[in-house]
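Saturday, quiet lab. Running sequence design on the structure tokens for the scaffold JK sent over.
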């Protein structure tokens, strides 16, 4: 057997085994305990009902009264505890006319599905190549894990989209705030970002 076949079999084994290592069906988060790298401990299955596995929060538009004109409604483990341990989550994105989801990143990958409106969505590769495109109703796009990405409503009606991410809690790091609104001394920020003090405000 040549090496490429060994590699393919090994890769299949690794991906298959990582998908089948769980010894339980589900692990609805028990918020009485702190979160760990693998998520929360599980609630007693005896106390669960089907309602623990459903979430009804994404039918209502998010509040877009903010400087970005964006409403984000999250179905993450903290609002939908059945996602705990399953490595996925969803969110609803309402972007008012002219609204922007500012450039940000997550720990994981994301897929967006546009339901209404017209947006420009994009991400920046680690070699600084920009990938961006106008998306309309029914279009989907991927933002690969950890890469900086954004969405802008360029249409004349509010945009509605749903996103799914492959973590029960993907995190959200808003790049501009991380660079300019952190607790570091201004002198250190200036050195590590090349931003001057005026640009920081
Ligand atoms: C969960 O179920 C166990 C066993 O059925 C019971 O002893 C316990 O009181 C329940 N806990 C809650 C929070 O309902
Ligand atoms: C939307 O958010 C703004 C700003 O936080 C707040 O003043 C307003 O009451 C909110 N509207 C609703 C309907 O919750």
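Result came back. Writing it out in full:
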């Amino acid at each position: 057997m040549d090496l490429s076949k060994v590699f393919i079999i090994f890769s299949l084994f690794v991906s298959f085994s990582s998908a089948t290592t769980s010894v339980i069906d589900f692990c609805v988060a028990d918020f009485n305990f702190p979160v760990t790298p693998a998520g929360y401990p599980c609630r007693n299955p005896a106390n669960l009902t089907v309602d623990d596995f459903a979430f009804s929060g994404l039918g209502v538009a998010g509040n877009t009264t903010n400087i970005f004109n964006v409403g984000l409604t999250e179905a993450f483990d903290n609002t939908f505890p059945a996602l705990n341990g399953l490595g996925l989550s969803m969110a609803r994105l309402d972007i008012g006319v002219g609204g922007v989801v500012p450039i940000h990143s997550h720990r994981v990958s994301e897929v967006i599905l546009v339901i209404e409106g017209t947006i420009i969505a994009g991400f920046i590769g680690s070699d600084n190549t920009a990938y961006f495109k106008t998306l309309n109703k029914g279009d989907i796009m991927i933002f690969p894990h950890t890469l900086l990405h954004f969405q802008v409503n360029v249409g004349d009606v509010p945009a509605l989209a749903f996103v799914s991410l492959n973590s029960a809690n993907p995190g959200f790091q808003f790049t501009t705030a991380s660079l300019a609104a952190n607790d570091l001394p201004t002198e250190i920020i200036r050195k590590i970002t090349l931003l001057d003090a005026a640009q920081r405000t």
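Notes for JK: The chain has one domain: 56-200. The first strand starts at residue 70 and ends at 75. Ask whether to fix the surface positions before the next round.
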